[in-house]
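# step 3/5: fold
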Amino acid sequence: MAEELLYLPKVLFNKRTGARAAIRGNEAHPDITGEMMLYPFQGGTLVVTAVRGLPENNFYALHIHDGSECVGDFTTAGAHFNPTGAEHPNHAGDLPPLLSSNHFAYMILYTGRFTPEEVTGKTVIIHEKPDDFKTQPSGGAGARIACGIIEN
């Protein structure tokens, strides 16, 4: 491996993401704003997500969806990004939950399930509930409360 994995990867400091999404809440959650940044890393993606204005201190499901727009109740964002047809929680777009504290959540994760290029044009969704990691097809995560379109 080119970089020591025990330290923050240098890609986080070069200011060049592979893709990013501006996240905004729906009409019922107008205070939600945030950003997801996707960096190419180790053949996959380093995902950095920061969100403020979440309604409660709670866990929130976070998924990449295969749709390309964030309109109305965000059903236009489609289903989970799942190019291999896997069952939940093995969709490529299934991510760990966000944990809100003081209405703010911040997370850095690595996934080898997709590259930034593969999800550019797709959407990121925050759901009102945590993912239960078993209910098909989407983890019983409830309504879509925030959405962002992934762009280069």
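# step 4/5: annotate
The two ends are 26 Å apart (CA to CA).
# step 5/5: archive (pending)
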